[in-house]
User: Fold this.
Amino acid sequence: MENLRLLGGRSSSGSGKGRSHQRPVKYGFRLVKGKANHPMEDYHVAKFVQQQGHELGLFAIYDGHLGDSVPAYLQKHLFPNILKEEEFWTDPARSISKAYERTDQAILSHSPDLGRGGSTAVTAILIDGRKLWVANVGDSRAVLSKKGQARQMSTDHEPNTERDSIEDRGGFVSNMPGLLKESKCARVGFALHV
Assistant:
């Protein structure tokens, strides 16, 4: 797990790219700051690492809302939580789901320290350049480019269309003045090219 320490950084308006050392796989990301009158609140991860004899491509965008403490927490904890699941190598889908849930519960339990803000999350894990696992919460998006054709790999979760599900789980949807407009100004995402 020591390879996971310096995976990404606090994002600013910018972009980055890289490639696998073992397969013909390249990645890129682009982050655009919206017109909101506050600093960028997004964090990202984009890196290939070696883990238990496998090459893992770890990619994520954490789009912060009302502060950067939750996306910073996600950047530090979500991938390690996924990779320490006992079933990760045999059942990645279940492990990813469990780690998302566990990380969400940890964020809720730390809410006094993390503040009122929140974050979307989109993650992709590429195992040995052959198997891709994508998960997301919110409206950040993953796109795969294959032979020049873009394929959306995640489904945006919009609070207004999923209000019933959110409220059934004890959450709430609020349209605070200015936030809806600001959130539409910034779009974050990443692409893998295979």
